[in-house]
């Protein structure tokens, strides 16, 4: 058996859509067996769903769960239901499903009976004008008080409301309410031809442009029956690791600034500028927009660009090691970060945390290792973890992941016999009809998930986007418990989650 792939494609007519209760039971059994829930979503039934039932119109909604098995990659469980139906909540047994079921309820009306925290994720549609009625969790008791922060924040921070329930300075519970940005991204993606969506996908979460663009490109290429050259995949990997380095530096700089370690804040910011400027010299944009396109890449790496990147990375590595030494040896840094914002491995597993947030709690989950595909099978990159699950662990892991990306980039860019210049983009034709394609790309926060489904005519029926922040926001809320409220900015920056990635 070959390596598991980060792109999985299946004919919808071969996906048996079962009754909703049976689907929920199958999902719960899979999670109990140790499989991971990648995403869960619903859509209105159409000609494909009627075809699955032999022509009988048995329902109005199709629900899809994508899971990842440890030994066999991605697979799909599909259910069917009439609108307004109810089913036994998966969350009641497996908390990792909580955000997925809330989103499914909000978008389709399907009710997960027994869900312990059923409230909107984004306040979509008719609910948009009812955010003031949000059923916040409340606490009672002598000396218990609430502190509300946001949704309007200072500077350029995106909107989000944080409701702290405190006993004195100690946080007993934090509830995070997002959904203030009503962009309607998924619906918008169905209004344009599928091969013309690059510029939109790149801006879903602007600091994760490469991860989103790569997942989208991989999906439409698979649906068009096109396999890009290995060299193009390698250039995409270079772009992704440059993005990872730059964005981890944002969090490191923010953490240093929040604890008044000003040398770290200034130096990490300067180093980030060096990386994003190097990206701009390759493709014309500091965030990598316009670099990746369906069929390949628009900007290749000739010898001059490779030499420029290598020189940048060598100079970067020296200064990065020096500032890391200062951060790691500072007593004031250690006293603020050790034991602050701890999420245990058990809690991280129960909540289904992904990406760096999971790895900092000791869970070795990384799509580059778990679903390596062709690129990371030929050019592997080590999965790193930390065990303490606190702000210190998340800081250290970012440093170590940057070092791993630097090592990987220097090996790839410095390797003889690999020509990364002069690659023509492959032309893509019509997409396969009646097909579901799921892609994962491990961005700097975690796996960016995209699911594209075509109808009988080859047009897109559904486009599901998922930022890793959706699964990790509750992890931040748990991290703040039993900490002082003044620790929240450090915890928040150590997770460094996306508001707009959540508010699609």
From TrEMBL:
Q: Which domain of life is it from?
A: Bacteria
- Cite the Gene3D superfamilies for this sequence: Cytochrome-c3 Hydrogenase, chain B
The record's Pfam families line, in alphabetical order, gives: Complex1_30kDa (PF00329), Complex1_49kDa (PF00346)
Q: Tell me the InterPro entries matching this sequence.
A: ComplexI_49kDa-like, NADH_Q_OxRdtase_suD, NADH_quin_OxRdtase_su_C/D-like, NADH_UbQ_OxRdtase_30kDa_su, NiFe-Hase_large
Q: What keywords sit in the KW lines?
A: NAD, Oxidoreductase
Q: Name one GO molecular function term.
A: NAD binding
**Residues of the NADH-quinone oxidoreductase subunit D domain:** 270-413
* Domain NADH:ubiquinone oxidoreductase 30kDa subunit, first and last residues per copy: 85-121
Q: Ribosomal protein: present as a keyword of the record?
A: no
> By its UniProt entry, which PANTHER family does this protein fall under?
FORMATE HYDROGENLYASE SUBUNIT 5-RELATED, HYDROGENASE-4 COMPONENT G
> Mind telling me what this protein is named?
Ni,Fe-hydrogenase III large subunit
């Amino acid at each position: 058996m070959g390596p598991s792939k980060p792109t999985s494609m299946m004919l919808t007519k071969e996906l048996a859509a079962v009754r909703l209760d049976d689907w929920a039971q199958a999902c719960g059994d899979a999670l109990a067996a140790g499989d991971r829930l990648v995403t869960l979503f619903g859509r209105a039934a159409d000609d494909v769903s009627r075809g699955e039932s032999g022509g009988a119109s048995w329902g109005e909604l199709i629900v899809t769960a994508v899971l990842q098995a440890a030994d066999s990659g991605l697979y799909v469980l599909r259910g069917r239901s009439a609108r307004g139906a109810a089913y036994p909540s998966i969350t009641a047994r497996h908390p990792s499903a909580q955000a997925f079921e809330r989103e499914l309820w909000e978008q389709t009306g399907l009710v997960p009976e027994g869900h312990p925290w059923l409230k909107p994720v984004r306040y979509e549609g008719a609910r948009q004008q009812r955010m003031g009625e949000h059923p916040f969790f409340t606490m009672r008791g002598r000396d218990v008080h609430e502190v509300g922060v946001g949704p309007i924040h200072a500077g350029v921070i995106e909107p989000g409301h944080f409701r702290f329930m405190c006993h004195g300075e100690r946080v007993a519970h934090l509830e995070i309410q997002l959904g203030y940005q009503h962009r309607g991204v998924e619906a918008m993606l169905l209004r344009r031809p599928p091969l013309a969506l690059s510029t939109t996908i790149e801006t879903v979460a602007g600091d994760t442009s490469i991860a989103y663009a790569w997942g989208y490109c991989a999906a439409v290429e698979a649906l068009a029956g096109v396999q890009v050259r290995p060299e193009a995949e390698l250039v995409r990997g270079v772009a992704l690791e440059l993005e990872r380095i730059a964005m981890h530096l944002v969090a490191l700089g923010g953490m240093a600034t929040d604890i008044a370690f000003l040398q770290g804040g200034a130096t990490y910011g300067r180093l980030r500028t060096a990386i994003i400027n190097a990206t701009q010299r390759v493709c014309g944009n500091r965030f990598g927009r316009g670099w990746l396109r369906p069929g390949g890449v628009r900007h290749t790496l000739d010898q001059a660009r490779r030499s420029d990147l290598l020189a940048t990375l060598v100079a970067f590595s020296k200064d990065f090691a020096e500032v890391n030494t200062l951060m790691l040896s500072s007593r004031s840094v250690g006293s603020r970060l050790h034991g602050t914002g701890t999420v245990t491995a058990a809690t991280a597993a129960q909540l289904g945390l992904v990406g760096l947030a999971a790895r900092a709690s000791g869970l070795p989950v990384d799509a580059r290792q778990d679903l390596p595909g062709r690129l990371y099978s030929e050019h592997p990159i080590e999965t790193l973890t930390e065990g303490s699950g606190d702000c210190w662990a998340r800081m250290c892991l970012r440093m170590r992941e940057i070092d791993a990306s630097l090592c990987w980039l220097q090996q790839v860019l410095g390797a003889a016999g690999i020509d990364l210049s002069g690659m023509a983009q492959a032309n893509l034709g019509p997409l396969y009809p009646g097909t579901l394609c799921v892609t994962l790309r491990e961005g700097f926060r975690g796996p960016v998930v995209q699911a594209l489904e075509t109808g009988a005519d080859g047009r897109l029926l559904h486009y599901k986007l998922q930022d890793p922040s959706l699964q990790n926001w509750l992890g931040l809320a748990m991290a703040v418990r039993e900490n002082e409220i003044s620790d929240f900015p450090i915890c928040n920056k150590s997770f460094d989650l996306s508001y707009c990635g959540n508010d699609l």
